[in-house]
Amino acid sequence: MQTKRSNKRGFSLIETIVAIVIMSIAVPGMLWTVREAHIDRVNPTLASTARWLAIEKLEDVIADRHSTTRGYTYLIPGNYPAENPVAGFAGFSRTVSLNETLADLVTAGAGYMNVTVQLSWTDGEAQAQTLDISTVLTDYAP
Predict the structure, then answer these.
(1) Do the domain assignments include residue 8?
(2) Domain assignment present for 123
(3) Total domain count, the chain
(4) Predicted TM-score of the model (pTM)
(5) Residue 88 domain-assigned?
(6) pLDDT, tens only, 63-118
(7) In the chain, what is the straight-line distance between the N-terminal and C-terminal CA atoms, in Å?
(8) Domain containing residue 134
């Protein structure tokens, strides 16, 4: 009696080993590419958020300067405490520095206020980043 040979064919041991070797070479590269793509997508978003938060605070200070109820004398460090974290934005911290100077913007004095808003955050590669935005406000009414 002859036995019938099945037409079904499976993978041989050699084919299986070759497939495993190919996958072990290809998968780490694909995972690295996915990680890099994520970082390339996240970092500009974080920087844009930081820029927006800095400009928002700078506009608050400018509005206080031009307010009829607050004005130039309101611009003191005690009115702008450090925010760590910024409300609603975990991972971002914000500080405001106010330095009153003379017209040369260097010598300590009165009449000109150097306002700097600094934002700090950690980017997608776990690197500390900072952004400073500054302006000068005067004590002189238009």
Answers:
(1) no
(2) yes
(3) 1
(4) 0.73
(5) yes
(6) 999 999 999 999 999 999 999 999 999 999 999 999 999 989 889 888 999 999 99
(7) 113
(8) 13-138
